[in-house]
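Worked problem 6 (solution included).
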Amino acid sequence: MTTEVRVPTLGESVTEATVATWFKKPGDAVAVDEMLCELETDKVTVEVPSPAAGTLADIIAAEGDTVGVDALLATIAEGASAAAPAPAAAPAAAPAAAPAAAAKSVDVMVPTLGESVTEATVSTWFKKVGDAVAQDEMLCELETDKVSVEVPAPAAGILTEIIAKEGDTVDATAKLAILSAGEGAVAAAPAAAPAPAAAAAPAAGKDIKDGPAAEKAMAEAGLSRDAVTGTGRDGRATKTDVAAAVAAAKAAPAPVAAAPRAPVAADDAAREERVKMTRLRQTIAKRLKDAQNTAAILTTYNEVDMTEVMALRNQYKDQFEKKHGVRLGFMSFFTKACCHALKEVPEVNAEIDGTDIVYKNFVHMGVAAGTPQGLVVPVIRDTDQMSFAEIEKAISEKGRRARDGKLSMAEMQGGTFTISNGGVYGSLMSSPILNPPQSGILGMHKIQDRPMVINGEIKIRPMMYLALSYDHRIVDGKGAVTFLVRVKEALEDPRRLLMDL
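Solution. The predicted structure is:
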């Protein structure tokens, strides 16, 4: 016996609805009054219960279809034979699935994200469902508020399911995907691969219109269509999708800029491009603003004659690289000079903890590095105990890892002082912002020939402006100026570094 499932009464003056979501699929057993699907009108969302117990035999109106009152939605097979259609369909699929019986499912989990990091955003999938993958081959990339994390395949096989899609936020214990590994895994690929293509094909061929209830909900919530991920047929947005987008917006970090955006002309808006900030960029913005709101940041300036450092570097750079396998740059000189100055002015190397000042009897130097994802500050530990060669090797290695997005959480924690070199980008002078909870940051700038008065004569010298931003709550002006003068003296006469002067 077959029972028809029809569109219920939708309400006064409502003549049609859109099928938003099917909760059951053909072959599923259903109970009386169990919810089969959800319809959306321009006023309400209507749930359609099952009029009888049995098996859902056929779905007539698919997700996204517009139906009138009393239209046929589906049919239900009742009685003792109701369960028969499901087993009957199984043998047809069995031959294709049989070779995969020897394969086993392997879960792809979120890797360890690091201390205090509880969630990440899936930024990029390098593989799609149906692709063959080798063990340790990169499957996807996650973004946390500090670093990018690559996720390797735990085994060789076929990527059979992607659970966390690009843009999804996942916690530290979440499952990202499922692999089919072992014998027979390759045979499962042809069956799995067409599914995404088939689902995407209709969307490419026609204009997709969301359900009226979804459109109304988006208008009421003030959401743009781009902010809602549609899960209905052909990617249509449903009222449930809009509710999820609203909830996600409320849970997201507060926007960095509180000021409302100025009105934009329609023709200008059509030429704009809106790109969501990465988690790393959001965290950078928040931390920099927090630093301004918390610390009493003041900047003092000086300039340094780079003649002696450049001469020393030019004299020994070939021998240095030949012996140590790394180029001799200016960063090791500045790092050494800062370590010496920090010993004399320890408050620049300290931090405030409540009502206490914590003095660090060591120097963990943060070296700011620009990457395609944003500014990161890897930390080189115990630089006050390192040689020029060790410093250069550490800076080179950390810089490379930063650009490749492979820095670990531990490599960016615990810094006591930071050096930022804006000169590599051509900056002549700037005021760097503190990297909390540190109390000092040195800004290096472009080396530029300028006329200087030397012993009563005007000479052309390679000069660099230096900027020290410091937390005036803990560092007085005298200490800040003294620190910067000591750095200047050490660089203008590098022999002082050798003699610890």
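Discussion: The radius of gyration is 32 Å.
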